[in-house]
Design a protein that fits this description.
Three copies of one chain form a homotrimer. Chain A is of the alpha+beta class. The first copy, chain A, has one domain (3-136): YjbQ-like (Jelly Rolls). The first copy, chain A, is built from three helices and eight strands. The first copy, chain A, has helices at 22-32, 59-71, 87-96; strands at residues 3-10, 17-20, 37-42, 48-53, 99-105, 108-109, 116-121, 129-136. In chain A, strands 1-8-3-5-6 form a five-stranded antiparallel beta sheet, with helices on one face. In chain A, strands 2-7-4 form a three-stranded antiparallel beta sheet, sandwiched between helices. In chain A, a hairpin with a 2-residue loop joins strand 5 and strand 6. The longest helix of chain A is centred in the middle third of the chain and has 13 residues, at 59-71. Chains in contact: A-B, A-C, B-C. Chains B and C meet through helix 3 and strand 8 of B and strand 4, helix 2 and strand 5 of C.
Chain lengths: 137, 137, 137
């Protein structure tokens, strides 16, 4: 079977938060038994995103969230704030994007030494956030 | 055949515009008869982009365009404006990116409840904009 | 074999730099002999990124780098600068993202007339930067 999908469930605890999901994604690739392929990590939420960066220093994620807050200020007369007070979260989600695709080589995710997979929460805390890991081999 | 591509044609009517192409993408997935796979939505233009976000309130798209205009102002002494007066459109296109990849599970695009696929026009109006929907299963 | 990966090696010569790798990516697609599929271009570095845009006027890349520098200023009291003086590079990398996925139709990369594939360096110069081109067909 060329495709295997696995659904992950996450809990977030802050309005803006970075969760490192690298180990969960590696487990999916291992369980799929894929020697060669690609892995797409996707979140089906319009106020969250997936990105890849360093987590050896967790402040990288903190800096990223602050940079996004500078570029997309809260309550900047956004029209959607009149309906549902989370326009900045939607804008950040659209900007960072809901997915990343990573090669699988020799049975392993081809992440670089300093790369980790991040789930980005922009409108938490939420008891249930979902991520779909799709392995194609 | 593991890959099926379908070309969509769009018309835009404003300089900056969001077009919701979710139904067109869903139709491609249905026509491909894919039970399990991924779908890549790609636009071959350097002044447009693809993103995913909420359209239940169409103001989310409007807010997104305004946030991009704040981050990437028009005529900020961009060098490319001397050649072709659309540098901001190119920068927005490179930032948002030309593609998104979405899982297909149980024959359906795994978009979340609040997710729609957006074509982003940054240098319209244009009579013909193209999108390629590639279904891999 | 449905997947073929090829590793490219690049050298960068400036702190922030755009390298056009379109021809290298086209060669990988040709060598893979893929008639129909998708190509994922991925960089395994946390201070670099992949994007797609015009290179007919190389100033488009220069403008893009300046827009990123405006949105993500150097030394803005970033926490990671205390550990390793390159926080802005990490933030730009997370924002632009490490990969792009491009359709392959009729044996060719479906890039638009004005689209080129860019490797973005945000923390150079570096003697060895890597890019993985994964062709799925």
């Amino acid at each position: 079977m060329p495709f295997r999908h696995k659904n992950l469930t996450l809990r977030t605890t802050a309005k803006n938060q970075i969760l490192d999901i690298t180990e969960e994604v590696r487990t999916c690739v291992r369980e799929a038994g894929a020697e060669s392929g690609v892995c797409t990590v996707y979140t089906p939420h319009a106020t969250a995103a997936i990105t890849i960066n360093e987590n050896a220093d967790p402040n990288v994620g903190t800096d990223f969230l602050r940079a996004l807050a500078m570029a997309v200020p809260e309550h900047e007369d956004w029209l959607h704030d009149r309906v549902d007070d989370n326009a900045a979260a939607h804008i950040k989600s659209a900007l960072v994007g809901p997915s990343e695709t990573i090669p699988i080589q020799d049975g392993k995710l081809a992440l670089g030494t300093w790369q980790n997979v991040f789930f980005c929460e922009f409108d938490g805390p939420r008891s249930t956030r979902r991520v779909i890991v799709s392995v194609s081999s």
